[in-house]
Amino acid sequence: MVAESTEPATPSDQAGILLVPDRPVGRGGVVYVCVDDGFPGGFPIGRAIRDDDGTWCAYARHRPGRLFADDRVATGLADLRAAVREVLAHARYADPE
To answer: What is the rounded CA–CA span in Å between residue 73 and residue 46?
Structure first.
């Protein structure tokens, strides 16, 4: 019997992306980007943080073996939409074994 290898899925392959605000989106706002996995709040794959200067930073889970950590993938983004796009472009996830 051969074990089946599964590549980490990209969030854009999945149906349903949730944006979950953790703090007000004003200065210092944090919005979690989650895949709708059927559980309340979804499965977090990244986050967008608004800097004091009004720009946004994007953080995504994209390194294998780091299940609950994310890395900064973009800074100086003009708006939340751009930050979410960067999260989706970089984030990878797979169910823990």
So the answer is: 10
Residue with tokens 């590549």: 7
Give the pLDDT confidence score for residue 12 in this predicted structure.
47
Give CA–CA dist 23/61, Å, rounded: 20
Closest CA to 23 of 32, 14, 15: 32
Say which residues have a Cβ less than 8 Å from residue 67's Cβ, sequence separation at least 6: 61, 96
Rg of the chain on CA atoms, in Å: 14
What confidence tens digit (pLDDT) does each residue in 2-40 have?
333 344 444 445 458 999 888 766 667 899 999 888 888
Please tell me the distance from the alpha carbon of residue 32 to that of residue 53, in angstroms, as a whole number: 20
Tokens of 26: 């004003």
Structural contact between residues 86 and 73, judged by C-beta atoms closer than 8 angstroms: yes
